[in-house]
Amino acid sequence: MTSTRPLGAQISHMLKDRGVDVIFGIPGVHNQEMYRGIEEAGITHVLARHEQGAGFMADGYARATGKPGVAYVITGPGLCNIMTPMGQAYSDSVPMLVISSSLDETAATRGQLHQMKDQEGAAATVCDWSLPAQDGPSAYTLIDRAFVEFEARRPRPKHLTVPINALETPSAQSWPPGTGETGVAQAWPDHVLGLAGRLRASRRPLFIFGGGARQIDFAGPVLARWNVASFCTYAARGVVPADDPLYFGSYLARPESASVVQQADLVVVLGSELSETDLWRRDLGAQVPIVRVDIDPEVLVQGCTPILGDAFGVFDDLATAVPEELQTDWRPADVAATRARWRAQLESERPGIVPVCDALRACLPQDTMIYSDMTQFAYAAKEVWDMDRPGHWHHPTGFGTLGYATPAAIGGAVARQGKPTMAIIGDYGFHYTMAELGVAVELKLPIPIILWDNTKLGEIEDSMVRAQIAPNAVVAHNPDFCKLAEAFGANAAAPTTLSEMQEAVRAAFDANGPTLIYLTPDISNPS
Q1: Does residue 321 sit in the same domain as residue 392?
Q2: If 0-12 CB within 10 Å is exposed, 13-18 middle and 19+ buried, where does residue 469 land?
Q3: pTM
């Protein structure tokens, strides 16, 4: 085995030793040394059509596997292009390692190819840290630091930049054999026991599960034993079974949810920031005792009882500490009536979308993983679409970028070979990353891409109308999306009824490549 190689090649070998099997990216003259070792290390490289696509693919891969998504990009514009996915991964707690090349010297020289004034500083605005590695030992140390932090802290993207000269310089294979198992800090037992006592004393306990709790796959029987009511944020859907009679669903953003929270005498929040994009208001809107469980100390703000620890571990410990059945004052009939009212509100607000959601959900195979985009169809679906398992619907929740779904689904499908993966995207968002359709064709990934075309930036138009602004710049010329997909070599379908849509989706999962399934609001009311 070669013990000395150019550092660019060694980096790939080290990543392989750390469990990386796929890298997303685009080669260029500045980062070509990073490509010297990819095949030799036994890593698959997925060639994106744009660095933004590479970043979203790495994000989608990470969300599907729980492993860090890795991307290689060039100096300057390559890094700038991937910064939007880095910002999205930061807000949604996705482990991603971006490695870029950099110029050897920028202070005294101007006019160089891909030159930036402050490459590390620019990337630092959208990730956990952005640091330079001037040589092999520094690169190896920072890579291991990233992997340890992915497991031990709130997972967020990291950026490592390596000068071109360093990438070309021979470096010894001097990294340690492995970082071992690393886990997040566990909550103090006394804190869990204290919560157990408060739960026993409560008559109306309410649990709110966030994305940080999505690894909990046993909540149903425990919540039923305790007779507690619950909500899930959009990212946590599937943690609570849809048939739980005291489950209020993922309707936290409904204004009336504040009155439900006000009825509680104890609220336990597991793994959620309760951010603006969870609630669409500043806070829960109720003055009740709150216990917050999170691995991020920044989230454990004043006004609550904080428990620093992993949501999964705390819930597991709490289930052990309170093994008995509890009696509460929540009534299933009240919960069912509230959910029915909220669903009716949504159907009135977004006419025609809910029946499409219902029909689409009914035709999907088990274990389908869904990646959605910033589109009105997804906004409605996230409220009414109950998931049968957690961690299977991914949305660009915090940063809120357009163009996420198609490349992220590609990353997810690469990770989930043989398992069903689907994208949901709007007509305008599809424009952002439509070129990545070529990657799905190239890799023969059987991804149904549900393209919802309401011919405009519908959500922005509605917002302008509510603000009494004459709608402006909300309509763009669209291509014939089906012909566009076919030009890439993809399949395409334009169903006009819900049953035709279901047939097209089923066929897409069995196809030898992606299928663009073009839908318009007329599908709910065909003439």
Answers
A1: no
A2: exposed
A3: 0.95
